[in-house]
């Protein structure tokens, strides 16, 4: 079944792109060109039709082609099962990111209810060996894809925690203030924990039900005690009991903001952090595909996939297997690579965009296919 489709995309003063307008169909999108041409910038623009700071986590001021002068804008037309939407997002110089949905001003979190977007970028190749923050962010994106309300819970938890941390740093000892903030943190934190556990269960089921060329992983919540709350009352008690310790540290030391994600490479029975670079990449791809399959089952259509430099660390046979799985899923996957030959196994199943840079400005040209005459 066709999934969420991006049928029109317009960029204005976005990163290296002065202005670009693309019309697209349902097939995967293969984007190729030399390093520095602006391929990732294109995928970053697409990532902004979902809540948050996009696949690079950049601030709004960093997205403008000419910082401090003109601002930037991304506009997209989306079609999905039974509905269509127009999304505009932009920022003026010195301003915050704004969103308009179907012609009306909207909060970013509203995007989670109309557009499910998953991505894999080269910086995530170190997911299993770097700190817990990246793995937690990775898990939260997965949880958000299943439960749009996860964004509101995250914002509520972080806001209450910031206020509690301010009390801790100022050594305020009023128990009523702490109790009020801790109650808000506990309610939102329990929702975060529940959403994360539900997301892991959906991934586990999606992996078990699929025959795939990519490895399977056993996933579990990890982190210090109190980082995976199942009950708001328990978390509120933990926070209250830890006030003295937290005040000495100047910050909140327990709660879902300390959670971690553990993964075991099933085929070898070892932790993902001890796997080879190629195995770690394959595990990441497997989880993205499992996430997409689960969403397709839950909502009747797969999400948009953004796979930057996805061919890195994959041999030709595994690249072909990836393209077969994407095509079978019916997802509009945006994939980048330095050469058209990396997408040869896709053939006519994809649409092709060549990106090149001239005088510091990116240009996008449509190509007929990945053959030598189009590279």
Overview features:
six-stranded antiparallel beta sheet, alpha/beta, six-stranded mixed beta sheet, 375 residues, Rossmann fold, Glutathione S-transferase Yfyf (Class Pi), Chain A, domain 2
Could you please describe the fold and organization of this structure?
Helix content is 35%, strand content 23%. The chain has two domains: 189 residues, 3-Layer(aba) Sandwich (Rossmann fold), CATH 3.40.50.300; 171 residues, Glutathione S-transferase Yfyf (Class Pi), Chain A, domain 2. With 375 residues, it is of the alpha/beta class. The strands form three sheets. It has a six-stranded antiparallel β-sheet with strand order 2-1-4-5-6-7.
Q: Which band does the percent of strand residues land in? A: 15-25%
Rg of Cα set: 22 Å
Q: What's the pLDDT, averaged over the residues?
A: 93
- Based on secondary structure, the structural category is alpha/beta
**End-to-end gap:** 31 Å
Q: Indicate the overall shape.
A: globular
Number of domains in the coordinates? 2
Work out the helix count: 8
- Output the strand order for the largest sheet: 2-1-4-5-6-7
Got a strand count? 15
For this structure, what is the CATH class of the largest domain? Answer: Alpha Beta
- Uncertain stretches: none
The largest β sheet comes out as:
6 strands, antiparallel
């Amino acid at each position: 079944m066709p999934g969420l489709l991006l049928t029109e995309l317009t960029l204005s003063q976005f990163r290296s792109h002065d202005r670009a307008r693309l019309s697209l169909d349902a097939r995967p999108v293969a984007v190729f060109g030399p390093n520095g041409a602006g391929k990732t910038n294109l995928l970053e623009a697409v990532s902004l039709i979902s809540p948050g700071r996009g696949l690079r986590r950049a601030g709004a001021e960093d997205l403008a082609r000419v910082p401090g002068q003109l601002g930037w804008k991304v506009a997209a037309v989306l079609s999905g099962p039974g509905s269509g939407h127009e999304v505009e997002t932009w920022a003026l110089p010195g301003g915050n990111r704004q969103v308009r949905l179907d012609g009306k001003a909207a909060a970013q979190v509203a995007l989670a209810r109309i557009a499910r977007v998953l991505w894999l970028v080269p910086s995530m190749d170190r997911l299993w060996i770097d700190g817990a923050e990246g793995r937690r962010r990775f898990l939260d994106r997965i949880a958000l894809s299943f439960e749009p309300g996860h964004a509101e819970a995250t914002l509520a938890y972080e806001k209450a925690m910031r206020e509690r941390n301010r009390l801790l740093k100022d050594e305020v000892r009023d128990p009523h203030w702490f109790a009020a903030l801790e109650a808000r943190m506990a309610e939102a934190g329990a929702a975060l924990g529940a959403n994360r556990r539900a997301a892991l269960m959906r991934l586990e089921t999606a992996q078990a039900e699929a025959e795939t060329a990519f490895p399977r992983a056993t996933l579990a919540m990890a982190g210090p005690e109190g980082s995976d709350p199942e009950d708001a009352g328990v978390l509120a008690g933990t926070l209250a009991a830890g006030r003295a310790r937290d005040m000495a540290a100047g910050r909140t030391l327990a709660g879902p903001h300390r959670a971690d994600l553990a993964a075991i490479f099933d085929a070898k029975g070892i932790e993902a952090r001890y796997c080879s670079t190629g195995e770690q990449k394959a595990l990441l791809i497997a989880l993205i595909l499992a996430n997409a399959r689960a969403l397709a089952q839950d909502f009747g259509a797969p999400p948009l996939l953004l796979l930057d430099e996805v061919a890195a660390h994959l041999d030709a046979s595994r690249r072909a297997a990836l393209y077969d799985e994407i095509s079978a899923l019916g997802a509009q996957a945006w994939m980048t690579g330095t050469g058209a030959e990396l997408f040869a196994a896709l053939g006519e199943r994809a649409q092709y965009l060549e990106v090149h840079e001239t005088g510091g400005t990116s240009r996008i040209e449509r190509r007929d296919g990945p053959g030598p005459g189009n590279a």
